[in-house]
Queue: 4 jobs
Job 1
Amino acid sequence: MNATEPRRRWWPRSVRVRTALAAALAAAVVLAGIGWWVHQEVYRESMTIAEERAERTLAALVDQLRDGSVPGPRSAAPYEVVATGRSTAVASGGAMQDFDSRARHVLPAPPALSAPTPDDGGGYTMRPLRIPDRRDYHSEYGYDMAGKTYSVLYNDIWVGELGKDKAATLGVTAGATLRAYVVVLPDTAEEIVSTTDDLLLRAGLVGLVLIAAIAYVTVRIALRPVEAIRVLTASVTASDPRERVTVPATGHEITALATTINSTLQRLDDAAAQQRRFVADAAHELRSPLTTLLASLEVALAYPERTDWPAAATTAARQTRRLQALAEDLLLLARLDTRTPSTSPETVDLTALASRLTEQYPLNERPLTLTCDSVTPAHAHGNPDEYERLLRNLIDNAARHATHRIQITIRNQDAWIVLTVHDDGPGVPAEDAERIFERFVRLDDARSRDQGGTGLGLAIARDLAHRHRGTLTLTPRTLGACFQLRLPRAPTPAEK
């Protein structure tokens, strides 16, 4: 077998066939249990009927013997009457007459009695006895009893209480003891059980086929919406992900599946559109500095004698730095899109980090005031470099648009750290409060006049906030823009 060839399985792949087989298997187990219970109950009831019949036969024999009558051979149950002092049976019937009547009696003789038994009003004793396998046995009655063990009912009669005339009629001495045996045959019960088992087997097989067929048809009908969903989903392509599946109005699990698939397709469509928009915006952003750089270099090469080479080199260096910053931001966004939320065990004091960035941030080009008015430690789990990048992006954005002042505030609020960066610039319209976090978004107001930014700073900052299980939002302010960062607070050593 080829190593890449999938292994063949005996279990069918079709859900319809699997469900039908599973339903048939479950039904087979249930029917087998019911069949076993019916088998036991039928056999028990049949044996009870056989014992009652044997009991009635024994009572009739005892009555006949007490009347001094010799029972005839015709009997519903095999019986034999034996007596002490006599080698042959007094009487036998049923299947017992298949033994030679001139030979010794089959069942053992009773012990001799000298008085009537205490319970002679119809009581009997039952115990298992083995029918001997003798040469004088010739089964002609329909039962092959020789050599088998059966339950036997018997009752003893003292002939002394019957009188000499009845003893003579029965062919025994006046002081003899009679014992009437009746054999409980299970043959009828076994035949009934065998017939019942055969009927149950046939009915069970037909039932299993019907259950499997009903399960197959039911699942096939139930899976029709799934097949329709599969066909429509198969038509979805990367170039046209706008196809949507029909949501059934039944309200069952298929409806939830269709709704989920439509939601997934919508997310894929949105992601594809966002990716296309991102690629187009990235190409546009890269084209602008490249065009500027190429134009200045071509002009310089075309007129080398009239070119201010230091100024040309300065322009080329500025555009190259812009390209470098844009490439780094694009690479960082690509890494953030493929990484899971941060589980770094490191603890970062955001107050100390914000204070350090405030002191080190260059503000030489513009007369701005950058302050951090928090002194209480604010610890959060995460990557220190990523936290620094997040705060630096917020400060860079505020510095590009602030008029005179930037203020950073940090406070502990229950299980959260709330950090705000507030500038006194032109602010952001309320309808654009979320758009500014999208990649390469350009607004029409004064905040769109980017002075060296890549258009990705706020998008990177929000992704870093989400990566650390936090949020970054723009809160309403009457003056300027205020960005609020909420992060889970790490417990201090005193709180552990």
Job 2
Amino acid sequence: MMKEQQTLHLLDTQSVGQAFLRYLIPSMLGMLLVAVNIVVDGVMVGNKLGSTALAGLGIASPVYSLFVAMSLWIGIGGATVYSHALGAKDRLRAQTVFTYSVTIIFVATLVIGITAFIFRDPLIYGLGANAETYPYASAYMKVMLMFGFVFTVENALSVFVRNDGNPNLSMVAHITFALSNIVINYIILYVLELGVASVAFGTILAAFLGLLVLLTHFLKKANQLKLRRIKWDKTLLITVIVIGFPSFLAEVGLSVFTISHNLSLERIAGTDGVAAFSIMNYIHSIILLTFLGMGSAIQPLISYYHGGKQDERKRRTIRIAVQTALGAGVALLLIVQMAAVPIVGIFGSFSDGVTDLAVSGLRIFVMAYLFMGINFVMMTYFQSIGSVRMATWITAAREMILMLAIILILPKLIGITGVWLAVPLSECMVLITIVIYYKRHAQSEKNPLRKADI
């Protein structure tokens, strides 16, 4: 019992700096491994099965993205409310929220998966398949739709385990999923020489192995995650959905970012422009997940401190996180400016046209990282304290509203440079709105923001 009490109150007694590092390092390492897994998976499929198979997987990938978005929507929404309750020492409500969230994500994924499976043919063609790509897209999608609930439950549970004071186990689960997915798919493709459907099964199996790692958390005495009998609670459901919505929107925004840049670059620079963006997008996905790991690190801390009304700890956490994000952004800017050519060269030998576009575009685009990390941190902060409107604005503006407006207007004035500037400018403008919001509300006693926050 003594050990359980110590674990329960660790965030009450541990310094803010120690707590931040304890969550930051596992979160960032876990996300980096996931990013590497995405890149390696694509490389293996493309090299072994060819470009048509890779295109088929790309057409079916929105199903995977949807499941990621749903797991984060319910996972982060539920885990935030869970940590609020833990901070307020209301263990019964915390466990009710956990049970409710896991039930929702399991049932919702299963229902959506079965429904989409029934109508999979029009869905596949609606996503852009043709006679060549249909067999690959269909084979992959069938497996993901029927067994995707394994992945969503694993992803959502990892968020809860992190919020229950076990970020290291959450990291180990991410690493288990990423590395096992690479190994399994290598065996499937290069040893057994199987097809796309088996690759999808490999991903599900890797997620199941990650889930098994997470389930060991329930064997620990300090575990607060308990399943309870629940009754229908409309208010709780709405709370979880509303708080988690910015995370769902962020995943949708990634698709908007990719589609808008592909269309603009294809129109301006043709195939070379799209190829250059593909190279940059691989690099961006790694850095983006790193910043996401930074946001994931502060979410349990801010949520717990907010629930326990520990305002000073909350302010110190956000201050450290903003400083860390700014430092990371400056470091990335300097590294990419100096090493853009060799970084692009990692992805292969390309024509001079593609290489020049990728290098020049990368050097402009990387300016976004000066602001992006801070925006991620502040979005997570507002989401964690229940200020959903501001969190939603940050996500929608940086990935959709402002970015789309800029990418529609600026390239007409300055050409391809306007495409590369769309994200840096939108990120900078969003940060300005955050500062304005802070200045307007910093003096309000009812607003959780204070001068020390930024």
Job 3
Amino acid sequence: MAEAQSMPAGAGPGGAVAVAGESGVATRMSAPPSYDVADFPVPHGREEEWRFTPLERLRGLHDGTAAAAGSIKVDVTAPEGVTVTTVGREDPRVGKAGVPVDRLAAQAYSSFEKATVVSVPAEAVLTEPVRLALHGEGGATFGHTVFEVGAFAEVVLVVDHTGEGLRAANVEFLVGEGAKVTFVSVQDWADTAVHCSQHSVLIGRNASFKSVVVTFGGDLVRLHPRVSFAGPGGEAEMYGLYFTADGQHHEHRLVIDHTAPNCRSNVAYKGALQGERAHAVWVGDVVIRTQATGTDTYELNRNLVLTDGARVDSVPNLEIETGEIVGAGHASATGRFEDEQLFYLMARGIPAAEARRLVVRGFFAELVQQIGVSDVEERLIAKVEAELEASIA
């Protein structure tokens, strides 16, 4: 598997490394955020942020022609002490973690009726996850969810997406001082579904946020996690796993904006692709602001191509405004099965199909262990097995 790496001293062909203060390179965070759809022109596919996305498959979510006439069933399971309320746009918590940065997110914001706010009280240490299950029942729906986690609380949040239809949403995370949050998002939509969402995370002083994004289903899934730091000492761990099959488009675009000193971020996304017209896109942007001295960051994307006809676009970027950091780097790799790995296993009597299965399971094993929720891990492993059966058949 060929791998390209870059460090702050230079630039590689797969991604950009720029010291913004010296080169004049405009940061990808410079596009003005807005709640107003009119502030974002309808994309045509020539724009940098849209050049990989097949716009016609958004079925009107990007240009305002998808009317909010669909339905989605939402079930919330919350441990004792957690409150779940519905609020309007005027609630001060709505928009606090981040404002929409593209037309899809602005469309979702202007179209939702009520926002759901899930509040975890300060110092609560929850032994059971907070679970949201969203099941699309057809048509276009728009949503807004805010997870508010109090200071020094510890919680696991699991959001599960199934069913069909079109879904555009914004999800916000307000992570209080010293809090520890693990967020698991599973996209297991029906084959015809479209799902686009901006995840905005604001991490408090000495707090930690871990995200595990798992994408299997859907005709088109486009997720846009964005992380910023409200104080020093924050940590962000962003993990992702996607299995992109025949005709699917899975796109994950991350931005981590280091705005405070002595914060750490680590990104690791892995994908497997199979079938004609399977297309995966991963874009990882890390911005280190002038005031973010002592930053330590690294981002990694690896892809395993199982069959001919699949395509991967992987674009890591670093934009650095200060040299007073601990470290910053990125790596990207895309390749097929290693013949040596298969030969090693088959030489020990393991059939070819089983050897392929073991290689892929090993490829994903590290990320599966990051989930930390046994039933989700078991379901994920079963789904990987089912996808591998399809690729081997």
Job 4
Amino acid sequence: MSNFFDEMYSDGATFVREHYREFEAWLSEQSPETIARKRMEADLIFRRVGITFAVYGSDAGTERLIPFDIISRIIPAAEWAQLEAGLVQRVKALNMFIHDIYHEQNIVKAGVVPAEQIFKNAQYRPEMQGITVASDIYAHIAGIDIVRAGQGEFYVLEDNLRVPSGVSYMLENRKMMMRLFPELFARYKIAPVAHYPDMLLDNLRSVAPMGVTDPTVVVMTPGMYNSAYFEHAFLAQQMGIELVEGKDLFVNDNAVYMRTTRGPKRVDVIYRRIDDDFLDPLAFRPDSSLGVPGLLSVYRAGRVTLANAIGTGVADDKSIYPYVPDMIRFYLSEQPILNNVPTWVCRRKEDLEYTLAHLPELVVKEVHGAGGYGMLIGPAATKDEIESFRQRLLAKPDGYIAQPTLALSACPTYVEAGIAPRHIDLRPFVLSGKTVSMVPGGLTRVALTEGSLVVNSSQGGGTKDTWVLEK
């Protein structure tokens, strides 16, 4: 673990970076017993509040705590300003791309993105063709995964535009650090994140259907057995709006209504945490019991807003990811502020040949994969795993992309053996409505296993509080 950028130290464990000096001084004053006690306190509080996630198919039980680390990830104001500008630029271009492919398709006509990459994509929804959505916004909430590699350069690893999760952990991690270590917040000027639910609600209200001045907004969940149910309930409670399931809603006279104890109430904006396929059994999967029959027809008529829009998944597919820098140039006439990770698209003959020849060095991902599943990390794989993946690539090359194995930046982390560097990423949450906005920071995820690059909670990752320093 030597060739990576260390967030706290500029030369091994010798020189502390300026923005970490106060924290490192405080950390050196803490006894191992104090830290162990604070960690236990955090676990107890998280369990009491119910901050858990479900692990499907796990023998360890259905509910787990996401491990929380008490060494915060700190980002200086100037670095955040660059990140924020790049994120705003990227999400603007992605929204313009989604609008374009469901309308004029100029980017396809210009030969920038191949037609088959869009229209044969499993996430493309022909039902959305020609539909006008409020403010032309499709990805109202985007979770953009950022990694740091090399000498400290930021890269976008992937764009999550369907139903990105994790923001509740960002908020609860901050509350936990303020509760456990209030003295740290006296030493540092840390940009707040607690207003995110207010920003989210304002954002959702701003994209209500035309003519609606006082919109009713709801959070739509698949139900309590969903892995992110805690977050659905948490966000509804924080925004002061109703948490509903499909069975709580119905369509009548080309409008969506919610059943209440006072009778039906019109619903204008649905922040849905349900995949496209399950939203409307009349339009998509007829066996879905999670959706609302007739919802698509109301949506097509512009009488309800869905956040995120149906069909946004076509833009966060890993096979579309390599084209995002070209989208920025095409739609905005700007150079990308944030770079992509170099990517080989295995449906291309020369990219497949390179990938097959360098499998032990590369990370290979399924284009529709998520959560750290369906991927090969070459340097950590056995010969048998590499050969098995080789056969999968040969059988279905268009189902995979490959990327170099990045030495993700690391942040000191409390593990069983004490303090040690562990690899991290960052998921800022970008809101698009009348404007594009975000709270400073995001969810920092950490790979708790030594040497591991997989930060996903379903694969044993944990989280940290993310501090963006104010100027």
